[in-house]
Amino acid sequence: MLRDDDTLFTALIARDPSYEGFAYVGVRTTGIFCRLTCPARKPKRHNVVFFSCKDAAQDAGFRPCLRCKPLDIRRPTSGALETLRDRIKAEPDRRWSAEDVKALGYDPSTVRRAFQREYGITFAQYARSQRLGLAVNTLQQGGSVMDAQLDAGYESGSGFRDAISKLIGDAPIRTPVRQILTAQWLDTPIGAMLTVVDDAGVHLLEFAERKALPTEIERLRKRVGPICFGQHAMLDTLARQVEQYFAGRSITFDVPVVQKGTGFEATVWDALRRIPAGATRSYGEIARFIDRPDAARAVARANGANQVAIIVPCHRVIGADGSLTGYGGKIWRKQWLLEHERRLAATFSKG
Fold it and tell me: Is the pTM of this model over 0.90?
């Protein structure tokens, strides 16, 4: 159900991302319709009309904005970010310099900020992580340290060893005998997510802005093993299922989850996965469901310790009074996910 116009206009002025995909604004003076997060200058209150979907806006005769691109599934990002990310994917072994960025027509400082906003790291760090991931893949497939060093673009053997050690916590010469977790970025309509997998399944899936992410990565290193950016079949499966979820084509995940925790945490995480999409539960309700009616606070802690977002749906837990309680990925994303799933559940129930 579409919110009242006053609420939506306030969201438009604030560029509130929680309405992404659920509300659009048409500007009568231009005949254009936009996302509420559009960076264009905001119109006057009496010149706008709101729609619950993009089809309704088009049926009313409005054309899609060329700046915020409301017809695209993914939210618009910096053109520099998209171009450079594609170039890194095409040339993962290339060592990028500020001059290379300038040659493509982009300002290095602008590029740096774009990558920091989306991934929490600079362009140079993003490129280096992908380059080193390629090198570790070479080592895991039986290649020599020298081959991996050249793949990573390092002339200095010691410099390469230091970089690998910081990334995966081990020297390259010992890498082939250890199981290495593979990390990669996934792009979603509500922000980039970091995922870590291995042959057994998904160990971590978190939004880049989650404050606890560095702590979770360090905990994962200690509990399971070293982590490296790279390619993995499990990543391909996960990326496909995440894309289908956000595109509204699927509401379930069957990729295996292997995050490690205490017995109690595992019980709570299993209970979270039993909450139907489109529904919510309070901490107290979950505590009673697992036959620990006095453990609502412990349930809350276990809920917060979950590091596989969306698949283990900790966002479906709300306060006893119905309020949206704390969510590491930010409250607006929790609201977005709940609304997205409510609509998906309604759609699939009709089918």
Answer: no
